[in-house]
Amino acid sequence: MDQSPEFDLSQEPESADPQDAYERGHGPYQPHEPGYGLDQPGYSPYEDEIPDPQTRMLAIKNAKAYLLKTSTKSGLNLYDHFANILTKILDEQPTNTVDIIENISKDVKWAQFQKKMDTLCDEHLVPPTFEASEKYKALFIKEDGEEEHEELEEEMGQPSLPNVMETAFYFEQAGIGLSKDESYYIFLALKNLINLQPIQTCRFWGKILGLEMNYIIAEVQLQEGEEEEEIGEEGEEIVEEGEKEMGEAEEDEQKEQEAEPPKSTYKPPPEIPKEANGTGTNKYVYFVCNEPGTPWVKLPPVTPAQIVCARKIKKFFTGWLNSPVVSFPPFPGNEANYLRAQIARISAGTHVSPTGFYQFENEDEEDDEGADTYEENPEFEPPPVAEMVESLATWAHHVKGILKQGRCVWINPSQKSEENEEEEEEEEEGEEQQEERGPPLLTLISEDEGMKDIPAWTAQASTDLIPQYSVAILQSNRWPGAYAFASGRKFENIYFGWGHKYSPESHTPALPPPAQAEFPSGPGITETIDPTVEEEMAFKAAQEEALAEDEEGEDEEEEDD
Amino acid sequence: MEAQSLPAALALVAGGGVGLSPERRAALGASLPLVQRDYRFERVWFWGCIQGLRGAYYIAEGLGPDRAAPRCRLYSLNCLDWSLLTPATKEMLALAEQVKGRFQGDPSFEYNLSEINAEAAARLMESGKEPVMKEEARLIATIEQIDREVGIVPRGAFVKTPLGSVHENRHFEGLSLVEAKKLSSYFHFTEPVNLKNKTLLEKANLDPSIDFLDSLEHDIPRGSWSIQLEKGGTVVVLRSLLWLGLTFYHVPMTKQFGYVYFGTGEKNLDLPFML
Question: In this structure, what DSSP letter does residue A517 have?
């Protein structure tokens, strides 16, 4: 076009829609505009088809209707699409529009589709809240086979379900405990545990917090038949290992025929055997679950090596029983073993009862070993709460303390090693360990040592305002989180915490062992300097002289003869 | 935690095992509104309880119109009679970091400074005062440290106005469950330290009215927070491993949140060994 754009705009008023201009009246076409002369009869493109102006209007309307037809695929129509394109072009006024007109058309179509994406719904997420609620609801289901169960119970002696809510009430007077809902869920979960496992006595031991999940722990005594089965299983495992060793020994003999480097004479120190189930540190069996409603898992019995190592490390629990415990010194086991070891330490350190509640079965206390069993004292008179708070001598431990060896009852490790020694003659390798004696069973807690100036226990009454109904509360300072209450004949211990001991100093991890000493250097293995070439030549010359002298000597002798 | 929502909030943090006895709760319910009236606070927060050997300190905080202003702290031995604590000074903070061991439970107990820090003791002697540190000062410093290091709020709960003051965000409807599991959705409710160090790219995504605090993502050491969803996601509970006993709770998709401290008031310096 020769004309400037301004001239065009004056011809076509501001609306960018050419159709509007057409409808509003274009005015007579000028000779320079396209379409000039088309309205003259004989020059219209449809001239040969539609001669009549009336029908021409109809044809125009039909054309427009066709343009407005909606596409079945996309829902757009050509009319609107062109309108949008031209709007966009006139708004943006790009250069060389005719070259990019197809791209502009595509962009307009793409813009159309963007809005339609909003009608897609997000996937309906099922929040885990509902799954947990299902689990909690399952706790409330009463079993159908309860009648049969009750008959069995009467035969074998009823397992005692502890009254968790009552205990929770007493601890709540001191501000300790979980929310009532959680306590009730734990109550029901313990009931399930008793129904599933052959249990004689059961107690809610406490809750240990972890990084990702927490542990709820039940202290349990299994019925006697069940424990023997476990020992049988362990015996079988040992027999299998023995057989494997035999197989290996045969292979070794074959190998010995081939050249082999000398075997090391190192014998690891004898392993201290764990205590039998039902005694000492393994007196109770512990079941744990992450949340009430999840299945209970039995913790394995604890070995002295695990307790000794657990004393040296301090690690948070993650909440997964089979996660490894990465530490130095390396912990012999996974988190389940570490948890069991800490439970054993906490029980030994903080389970207390009013003095006199338990008494020894035999009055004689000759053997420490015999003092493992105690029974309730029927003549126990509970002292008043004020006295229990004031004097720590009114409380006594009823769990045996753990010795340095890791057991409650000391054992001489070298006795066991005699059975294993076949070729070893030296018994000096077994170190003479002094027999360890811990405090006897029912020691008063007033004899517990404090750390620096911090006493081992803090005793308080639950309330000063209403002394006749107050409860005596003990808090342990050595194991923060261990609590005990006593009110009349009722008492209970519980633990809520992270599972670690308190130490006034920071935790210092064990140092790695010192580097092994080198073989002592002596004249026998000290390297001497290699002889120089001159020295060697001189030596060789001296040797030849000596040989020559000998030959001469022999020759002379022969000549003499 | 807000004093008004105390009963519900205590039920939500009870997972840790330590809480308040009914007597203390009732006493708080009676005395905290009186504190609000007497000191003309706009909000009163029950901060928590520091357990000493012979007694416990119950702490409350009062907030004025600007929620980010330094808070007034009060302590009580029985949840009924509250005494105002002076603001913490830098010397107090420095000295308190060196005092180790449990709180005694008696606010007038004096720690002998010559054992702990000879220089400070010498300085005090020169200025004519005794080389001791009172337990009250240690208490003030400990509370300030805990608030600074582990006092947290969810993202979006507080808004900063163009004038600089901070208010609660009335349009805060709670974090979604997905957001609640991320550490980046929680902020330290204290003067930000790391904000300026963010790259321009990160800053472009921030909303200056909401993201004006440090998030928990870059806390040192990593892993010093334990996030748990209790009751299958009904409550998200964050426990600090640096100050054992600080528990933060939030019910996703609701406005309920808060933190409380029930502990011995000692920093867990063994944390790197324990993780």
Answer: P
Q: Which residue is it, tokens 């290091």?
A: B149
Q: Which of A40-49, A383-392, B180-189 has maximum average pLDDT?
A: B180-189
Q: How far apart are CA A468 and CA A484, in angstroms?
A: 19
Least confident segment among A300-314, A470-484, A508-522, B168-182? A508-522
What confidence score (pLDDT) does residue A236 get? 41
CB A446 within 8 A of CB A391: yes
CB contact under 8 A, A500 and B24: no
Token match 């392993």: residue?
A271
Pairing of strands A472-476, A482-487: antiparallel
Residue type, A385: V
Higher pLDDT, A383 or A144: A383
d(CA A96, CA A73): 31
Check if B253 contacts A (Cβ < 8 Å). no
Please name the residue of chain A whose CA is at the shortest distance from the CA of residue B177: A127
With CB atoms and an 8 Å threshold, state whether A177 touches B241: no
Q: What is the mean pLDDT of residues A461-482?
A: 89
Tell whether B102 is within 8 A of chain A (Cβ): yes
Rg, C-alpha atoms of chain B: 19
CB contact under 8 A, B17 and A509: no
Count of CB atoms situated within 10 Å of the CB of A417: 17
Question: What is the complex's ipTM, to 2 decimals?
Answer: 0.91
Range list of H helices, A258-303:
none
In terms of pTM, does the model score above 0.90? no
C-alpha A354/C-alpha A362 separation (Å) is 20
Buried b / exposed e over A478-501, threshold 16 CB at 10 Å, is bbbbbbbbbbeeebbbbbbbbbbb
Alpha helices in chain B (DSSP H): 6-12, 22-39, 90-98, 113-116, 118-126, 135-150, 177-180, 200-205, 271-274
Q: Residue B85 is inside which H or E element, if any?
A: strand B83-85
Hey, is the C-beta of A481 within 8 angstroms of any chain B C-beta? Answer: yes
A49: its two tokens: 């088809």
Indicate the range of A48-52, A491-495, B138-142 predicted with least confidence.
A48-52
**φ, ψ for residue A532, nearest 5 deg:** -75, 170
Residue in this structure with the two tokens 């493109």, named with its chain if needed: A45
- Distance (Å, rounded) from C-alpha A500 to C-alpha A208? 10
Q: Which of A206, A175, A164, A163 is nearest to A461 (CA)?
A: A175
Q: Please answer whether residues A440 and A368 qualify as being in contact, where contact means their C-beta atoms are separated by less than 8 angstroms.
A: yes
- Higher-confidence residue: A300 or A122? A300
Strand B158-160 relative to strand B166-168, pairing: antiparallel
Contact list in A for residue B244 (CB cut-off 8 A) is: 498
Cβ within 8 Å of residue A388, ≥6 positions away:
A354, A394, A395, A459, A472, A486
Residue carrying structure tokens 């509370």: B143
Mean pLDDT of chain A: 77
Instruction: Give B207's DSSP letter.
Output: -
